[in-house]
Amino acid sequence: AHSGLTLEALTQKILNCSRCELCNGRKSIVAGAGVPEPEVLVIGDTPDYEADLQGIPAVGKMGELLDKMLIAIKLDRKTNCYITNLIKCRPPQDREPSAQEKESCFSFLEAQIKVLKPKMILCMGRIAAQTLLDSDEPMANMHGKFYEYNKIPVMVTYHPNALLKNAELKKPAWEDLKEFRRKLDELDN
């Protein structure tokens, strides 16, 4: 059901958040970026140093790689994607977010999914995938598979940061992306 909440209003809510202690150390809240009616919602784990500085998700080296990955399957944050993170503020030293932090932020992600109504979700990274899908499966088991979240197909794949650290993950990630594109094409027809 459409709650009447707009993306702008939701983003404003996110930008005013002080639900957990991450609000004390952040430079900015990284709500998300992209088009208001995306085909695909891309969900990462947490904002990193660059994202925190700029207030925009997926910037710097990691962002360049993500943009290349998306463009390779005809997706782009300027035309048909929206990019956000499970956690909207950078955890200190990029540590893993606590259960309380995940819980504090999750309703924002749920609301973003409701408002954006993407056709598909690309979930990048273990923390985002496990939280969204309420699973404790390791990435090696989850990646490349389709799941559902509120009837929306979700594909889990590796976070671009993981690919920057470990080149061996690039091939499986590329296979995941091609599979994701195939499914999206099916839905488009």
The helix/strand class is alpha/beta
Main β-sheet: number of strands, strand sense, barrel status?
A: 6 strands, mixed
Helix percent band: 40-55%
Give the overall shape, derived from the CA principal axes. Answer: globular
Sheet with the most strands: spatial strand order: 1-3-2-4-6-5
Strand and helix map with partners:
Elements: H1 7-15, H2 22-25, E1 33-34, E2 40-44, H3 49-54, H4 60-72, E3 81-85, H5 99-116, E4 120-124, H6 126-132, H7 139-142, E5 146-149, E6 152-157, H8 160-165, H9 170-188
Parallel strand pairs: 2-3, 2-4, 4-6
Antiparallel strand pairs: 1-3, 5-6
Features:
6 strands, 6-stranded mixed β-sheet
Put the structure in a nutshell:
By secondary structure, the protein is α/β, with parallel strands linked by helices. 46% of the residues lie in helices and 14% in strands.
Structural commentary:
- The protein is of the alpha/beta class and 189 residues long.
- 46% of the residues lie in helices and 14% in strands.
- It is built from nine helices and six strands.
- The protein has a six-stranded mixed beta sheet, with helices on both faces.
- Strand 5 and strand 6 form a beta hairpin.
- It is globular.
